[in-house]
Every structure is written in structure tokens, then in C-alpha cells.
Design a protein that fits this description.
Length: 174
């Protein structure tokens, strides 16, 4: 009888121990997920919307990379600042809103919308004065410390150019 009681006690302790470990893992994951969400929100609100370049240092890694429509366009923080300045110059009133966010395994997936008016030079083209609304998608990867390491950004560049007033010229077929 004592053996059965001892075995039941040991079994109960093992089950409770496993349950506590699972709760601890869920809490740790939740804290990391919260950090990733917070850092990404700061990236959008402070870096993009408030145009605070200094905030990049605390939010993204030194070797941060950005892939835009399948092309690697940024290899570090200073290149990101230069890219952001192209948008800030072309669309000084631009604001990004986040439509949806999902975080899984240190990756963040989001749909976003950018609204702004082209009142400055954008990528070497003169201002058109036209308003734009551009929708896109980002897959972002984060370090163990919750810093943004890489973004894969996808949006329709033709739609952006058409909203600015540019048109496609059909090819000459001969």
C-alpha cells in the first residue's frame, strides 16, 4: 500500500512538473512575442511615421537587411536610413498603418497601408502633387533579443507609379 501511495505521489509530482514547464515556456514565448510586436510597432510609429532615424539603432540590428519585391536593397542600418529618406523626401506627410499582424517563431507577418502626397522628389522624379494609397505585405525576422534583422517587403510598384500619374507605354512590335 505504501508503494502505491509513493508511486501516485511521484506520478503527481511529475505531471505537475511537466505542466509548470509548459506554462513557463508559454510565458516566455508570449513575452518574446510581445517584445517583437512592440519593436515592430516602434519601427513603424517612431522610425517611419515620426521620421525618427535615431530610433532605428534600438529597433534593428546593425546588419539589418531589406528585400523589396525580391531585390535586396538594404544591407545595414545606414542604408536603411538612406532608403527611408527617399520616401520622406518624396512623401513628407506619409503615414503607414498596420492592418493585421501575426507573430510566430520570431517572425512577424503583416499587411500595411501607406498614405501620402508626393510633394517632393521621389527616386529622382519630380513631385506630382498626387495622393497615394499603397498596400503591401511584410515578413519580418527578429533576433533572439527582439531586434528586427530582416524585412521582406512586397507591394505593387506599378500601382504606385500609376497613382503618381505615370502610364505604361506598350512596346513597339515590328
Amino acid at each position: 500500500m505504501k508503494r502505491i501511495g509513493l508511486l501516485l505521489t511521484l506520478f503527481t509530482m511529475v505531471v505537475l512538473s511537466c505542466k509548470n514547464n509548459n506554462q513557463l515556456q508559454a510565458t516566455t514565448y508570449s513575452a518574446q512575442e510581445d517584445l517583437i510586436r512592440t519593436n515592430f510597432n516602434n519601427f513603424i510609429k517612431a522610425s517611419w511615421n515620426a521620421k525618427d532615424m535615431d530610433s532605428l539603432k534600438s529597433i534593428v540590428t546593425e546588419d539589418y537587411t531589406r528585400i523589396q519585391n525580391g531585390i535586396k536593397v538594404v544591407h545595414n542600418q545606414s542604408e536603411m536610413q538612406a532608403l527611408m529618406n527617399v520616401y520622406f523626401t518624396g512623401f513628407p506627410d506619409a503615414k503607414i498603418t498596420i492592418d493585421t499582424v501575426v507573430v510566430k517563431d520570431r517572425k512577424l507577418f503583416t499587411h500595411w497601408t501607406l498614405n501620402g502626397t508626393n510633394t517632393g522628389v521621389f527616386s529622382g522624379t519630380p513631385a506630382t502633387g498626387k495622393k497615394i494609397e499603397l498596400k503591401g505585405y511584410v515578413t519580418a525576422s527578429f533576433s533572439k533579443k527582439g531586434k528586427l534583422m530582416q524585412e521582406e517587403v512586397y507591394y505593387n510598384e506599378l500601382e504606385l507609379l500609376q497613382q503618381l500619374g505615370y502610364t505604361l507605354v506598350p512596346p513597339v512590335l515590328e
